Amino acid sequence: MKSLLDSLDSVLLMGPGPSTISPKVYEVMGKTTLGHMDPQFFSVMDGLKDSLRKVMQTHNEATITISGTGTAGMEACLVNLIEPGDSMLVIANGYFGARMQEMASRLGAVVSTLEFPWGSPVDVEAVKKELNSKSYRIVGMVHAETSTGVRNPIEQIGPLVRSMGAFFLVDAVTSLGGIEIKPDEWGIDAMYSCSQKCLGCPSGLSPVTFSSRAMEKIVNRKTKVPNFYLDMTLLMKYWNGSPRVYHHTAPANMYYALYRALELIQEEGVQAVYQRHLDAHRYLVEGLEKMGLSMLVEAPHRLPMLNTVKIPEGVEDAAVRKELRSSYKIEIGAGLGSLAGKIWRIGLMGHTARRENVDIFLKALARILRR
Q1: What is the pLDDT of residues 25-34, one digit of tens each?
Q2: Are 55 and 65 in contact (CB under 8 A)?
Q3: 14 plus 46 within the same structural domain
Q4: What is the mean pLDDT of residues 282-297?
Q5: Helix pair 154-163, 124-133: axis angle to 10 deg
Q6: Is pLDDT at 1 greater than 90 in this prediction?
Q7: Domain interval for residue 37
Q8: Which pTM value belongs to this model?
């Protein structure tokens, strides 16, 4: 009997995530499933830890992947660090900064939000002024704001946060594997990402890393971490324990996929991967500008992997995206929040970030806009 799955389209994923996956990653997903307490599977986990440290550019012992999507990674960092009554500053200039604020409030943090306009980067001097005006236990922000395509200067803000004695929490969901990020050098205490964007793996895993300082806070909490599944003290007994202590049934085949995706990044070279994302971005912007289109974000603050393009007057957002998908098998993203209907979000992440894919997209978009 023919299944619906037999007729699924092969789509060029150029939205805000997921990204197109390398056939080499798909290949290992069909390997034999191992049990989550199998000695060979523990070897896979150990390899994942080593590769994650290299790609995340950290020496943190507490560097693992959460069995869940990027939102689970966000929740893991917040639920482990926050205790009821902790004062937290969320620095927001887009949708995902607002999500961080919502999660932190649910965990009982006393949250203040320092907001900046969508499409503009966080202002370092304004942050410095806020940190000098009030004592905060935790400061959180997004590195690469997926809703706007803005790169935020976390490398300047991390040292400010550390000098105040606070813990610095960073969302690297879109940035990890696409642009430089240095948790150890930049004073990041907790950082989370996802598997399906610049790492070039299907969605379902969320790499996280915690500094030794952050882990000390977690171990010495006055109350238990309120979420068993995301409790780092328990997860580390599974990832690092001797002997290993069962925590949950890890998705073995997804671990294989991330293992291979990280291998591919290391084979190409981390810096070479960053350059490939940047080259594809510049090629895209050049092509869009030749078509008379303009970018939302000023050039110095643009993300190579997430490009926000202003929709021309008189062009219907949804109609263009629908035709791209139905006629050309290309997916791009719509604007969120106040930018809905005003921008397209074009992703150049992971395996998608190649000139040949940009050419395919530009030709299709030009044909649609001519009509």
Answers
A1: 999 999 999 9
A2: no
A3: no
A4: 98
A5: 10
A6: no
A7: 23-266
A8: 0.96
